[in-house]
Specification:
Layout lengths: L32 E7 L13 E8 L6 E8 L5 E8 L8 E7 L15 E7 L17 H9 L3 E7 L7 E4 L1 E2 L37
């Protein structure tokens, strides 16, 4: 398994359609780093109280053809079944685009197993995209996964035995640098999505990264 995710990013120009992504995303100035900083039950629809929390980080490869990711979580009281990226805006449920890990035997080949807690890493590729066809994404349409991430229209969802429809989730949003080399705001959340949870918020998890 890969250890850690590269953090190099550039100013973002947000893709507003599902058009094909250029072969060199960084050269085109598009967002290449995504994060779900506070995955909790409060983001589920309907909202859930859960002692678990998590964090997701992902980086697009130089050629735009794959995504390296790291998913970290802890605090579940029943076994983790699966984790995915889904197509959907905040507070809206959507179908599965791609698996992050699974213990159910239903995931595509080479999907890593979900640990009871801790960190799982992997690489997302076109062959892992399974849909959702009813929402306009056909199997293998990796460019639509990228487009969904770049406009904040995808979320990470972790499913457990206790909550098979999803116990904790968070929107995946782009992070990019401003002109001074610092972190700019992600800029992709529509105005009605509100601010991220305050420090100490979520499902009882302590503030700050959990990895």
């Amino acid at each position: 398994m890969q250890k850690g995710i590269a953090l190099g990013v550039v100013p973002a120009v947000f893709v507003l359609s599902a058009a094909a992504v250029p072969s060199d995303a960084r050269a085109q100035g598009e967002a290449t780093f995504f994060v779900s900083p506070r995955i909790t039950g409060f983001e589920e629809v309907p909202t859930r109280f859960s002692p678990a929390s998590g964090e997701f980080r992902a980086t697009v490869a130089e050629d735009g053809g794959s995504i390296n990711y790291e998913l970290t979580y802890s605090g579940f009281t029943t076994p983790v079944r699966e984790a995915h990226i889904h197509l959907g805006s905040r507070r809206v449920n959507g179908g599965i685009i791609i698996f992050l890990c699974a213990n159910t035997g239903t995931a595509p080949a080479n999907t890593p197993a979900c640990p009871a807690e801790g960190t799982v890493t992997g690489t997302l590729r076109p062959e892992g995209v399974i849909g959702p066809q009813e929402q306009g994404i056909a199997p293998g349409e990796f460019e639509k996964l990228l487009a969904s991430l770049r406009v904040g229209a995808a979320y990470v969802n972790i499913h457990t035995e206790q909550a098979p429809a999803g116990e904790i989730r968070d929107q995946a949003v782009p992070i990019f640098q401003d002109g001074n080399g610092g972190n700019g705001q992600n800029g992709t959340a529509p105005p009605d999505q509100g601010a991220p949870p305050p420090e100490g918020g979520g499902s009882g998890a302590p503030p700050g990264p959990i990895y």
